[in-house]
């Protein structure tokens, strides 16, 4: 099933609960939460208390994207009753296999993200253990950036590998997704679509959610 995951990075943080309920009501399948530490990426966002509040204030499952160094230290803190996917960056993990097992032990779906310049080969020996692979289609750190076109080739290659090896992990794309490219990204094999500015930057968020869902199907 294809899923839309609006990213709250582009929401109004002073009324986060309200904004999340608005997109949830419009049909969003997940809420994508961008956690940044100012070290792995050049920006700082939110931490576990905000994620816990988000979990408590809506019933939509959370897709938690950790753009932080040494994520192992904080995995337990981001595990709320609503955390469905817990995603770490391959570039931030020295012992990725151990980290992935830790996420699974916590009861979340294990996801690993790759920066635009990181090769798919970084995941060659761990794909069997993953529930989801997140391909960054912009450099992580900020919302509202332009989609990096080479991501399309990477996406097609990953979808091909999944088929060849008969695996069932989901593929998520994050960054620069809008009504202009979501159908093409979907056709190339993407299952989960993160959209920050395309949803929360729109005047009518509910209409934006409905349009993106319509186009990705
Ligand atoms: C970027 C974040 C994205 C971001 C996407 O580091 O991981 O989730 O919110 O925003 P848009 O959709 O505006 O590119
Ligand atoms: Zn993200």
Brief sketch in words of this structure:
Helix content is 31%, strand content 20%. It has 217 residues and is α/β, with parallel strands linked by helices. An 8-stranded parallel β-sheet has the order 1-8-7-6-5-4-3-2.
Commentary on this structure:
The chain is of the alpha/beta class. It has a single domain, classed as TIM Barrel, CATH 3.20.20. 31% of the residues lie in helices and 20% in strands. The chain has 7 helices and 8 strands; from the N terminus they run E-H-E-H-E-E-H-E-E-H-E-H-E-H-H. An 8-stranded parallel beta sheet has the order 1-8-7-6-5-4-3-2. Strand 4, helix 3 and strand 5 form a beta-alpha-beta unit. Helix 1 crosses helix 7. The chain is globular and about 45 Å long. The structure holds D-xylitol-5-phosphate (DX5) and zinc ion. The site of zinc ion has 6 residues, from strand 2.
Which terms would index this structure?
binds zinc ion, 217 residues, binds D-xylitol-5-phosphate, alpha/beta, TIM Barrel, 7 helices, eight-stranded parallel beta sheet
Write the layout of secondary structure elements.
Blueprint: E1 3-6, H1 16-26, E2 31-36, H2 48-57, E3 62-67, E4 83-89, H3 96-106, E5 109-114, E6 132-136, H4 151-164, E7 170-174, H5 182-187, E8 192-195, H6 197-200, H7 205-216
Parallel strand pairs: 1-8, 2-3, 3-4, 4-5, 5-6, 6-7, 7-8
Zinc ion (ZN) binds at residues 7, 32, 34, 65, 174, 194.
């Amino acid at each position: 099933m294809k899923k839309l995951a609006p990213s709250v990075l582009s929401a109004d943080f002073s009324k986060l609960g309200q904004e999340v309920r608005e997109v949830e009501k419009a049909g969003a399948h997940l809420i994508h939460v961008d956690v940044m530490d100012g070290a792995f990426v050049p920006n700082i966002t939110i931490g576990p208390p905000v994620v816990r509040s988000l979990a408590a204030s809506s019933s939509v499952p959370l897709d938690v994207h950790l753009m932080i160094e040494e994520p192992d230290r904080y995995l337990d803190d981001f595990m709320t009753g609503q955390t469905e996917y817990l995603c770490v960056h391959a570039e931030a993990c020295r012992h990725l296999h151990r980290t992935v097992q830790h996420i699974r032990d916590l009861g979340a779906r294990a996801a690993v993200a790759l920066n635009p310049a990181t090769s798919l080969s970084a995941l060659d020996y761990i794909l069997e253990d993953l529930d989801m692979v997140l391909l960054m289609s912009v450099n992580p750190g900020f919302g509202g950036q332009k989609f990096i076109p080479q991501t399309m080739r990477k996406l097609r290659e990953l979808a091909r590998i999944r088929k060849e090896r008969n695996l069932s992990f989901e593929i998520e794309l994050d960054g620069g997704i809008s009504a202009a490219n979501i159908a093409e990204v979907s056709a190339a094999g993407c299952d989960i679509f993160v959209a920050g500015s395309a949803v929360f930057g729109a005047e009518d968020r509910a209409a934006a959610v409905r349009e993106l869902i319509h186009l990705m199907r």
